[in-house]
Design brief:
The chain is an alpha/beta fold. Helix content is 45%, strand content 21%. It is built from nine helices and eight strands. The protein has helices at residues 11-17, 21-28, 33-44, 61-69, 82-96, 138-148, 166-188, 192-207, 210-216, and strands spanning 2-3, 51-55, 74-79, 105-110, 123-129, 149-160, 223-227, 232-238. Strands 1-4-3-2-5-6-8-7 form an eight-stranded mixed beta sheet, with helices on both faces. A hairpin with a 4-residue loop joins strand 7 and strand 8. The longest helix has 23 residues, at 166-188.
């Protein structure tokens, strides 16, 4: 596993919860997070001669999903937390044992999403799943994703959102802001990270417009796909 300097202010929090990260994701999404990653992989539809970079890879679930659900032979995962990247590396033998991943490869590194340590036009696709929301300098991160993409390459961003239906939105917000932190404290002994999740989703949904920011970073106008009653949104954009 390679390492690189990163300056993300959220790195200490994610490093602290790294060993509980998978359990939190699968428990509180009731396992639907697997579907969201699979859907993004299918939408990208990478061929055998294409490579991908998974930014904010966490413990590698999207990295492995790209290998499992596309024809891509090699995927690189990077995260601001060296502990997250280390855990992804540790998961690799079991993940790569799946028959669909035979002969494929992955590697992981700790790296700052706003200063990716890769040359220009190095990848055919870049993904960022539940990570862009946590990067303070989002414009720099999007510019880096654009830089490392080949012309015509795809960026796939999957992020939490709030449902548009008022009743569903109210019910989901109650679950996100009340039930999850309480359950996190009782079951996992940690409510702070889940309170942060709820507040960051609220801020993101209320103020961020990726459809405007991606073209400013050099991408063609993106398309968006809302999943699971609107609690998750996939944004797809190509480099010209």
């Amino acid at each position: 596993m390679k390492t690189a300097h990163n300056s993300s202010p959220t790195e200490p929090m994610f490093s602290a919860i790294a060993d509980r990260y998978d359990r939190n994701n699968h428990l509180f999404s009731v396992g639907i997070d697997h579907y969201w990653r699979r859907r993004l992989a299918h939408l990208l539809a990478l061929s055998a001669n294409q490579t991908a970079l998974d930014v904010c890879c966490g413990t590698g679930d999207m990295t492995f999903a790209l290998l499992k659900h596309t024809q891509a032979q090699h995927v690189v995962g990077v995260d601001c937390s060296a502990r997250m990247a280390q855990l992804a590396q540790q998961k690799q033998p079991a993940a790569m044992a799946h028959r669909r991943l035979a002969g494929k490869t992955a590697c992981f590194a700790a790296a700052d999403a706003t200063a990716l340590p890769y040359p220009d036009a190095a990848f055919d696709a870049v993904t960022c799943v539940f990570g862009i929301r946590n990067i303070p300098d989002r414009a720099a991160a999007l510019a880096q994703m654009h830089r490392v993409l080949k012309p015509g390459g795809q960026a796939g961003i999957c992020e939490f959102s709030l449902p548009r239906n008022a009743a569903v939105r109210a019910a989901y917000w109650f679950y996100l802001s009340r039930v999850m932190p309480l359950a996190g404290r009782l079951i996992l002994g940690d409510a702070a990270a889940l309170r942060y999740l709820a507040e960051s989703v609220r801020r993101w949904d209320g103020s961020v417009r990726l459809a405007e920011e991606l073209p400013q970073a050099g991408f063609l106008p993106p398309r968006t796909i809302r999943l699971t009653a609107g609690i998750v949104t996939i944004t797809l954009a190509r480099r010209a």
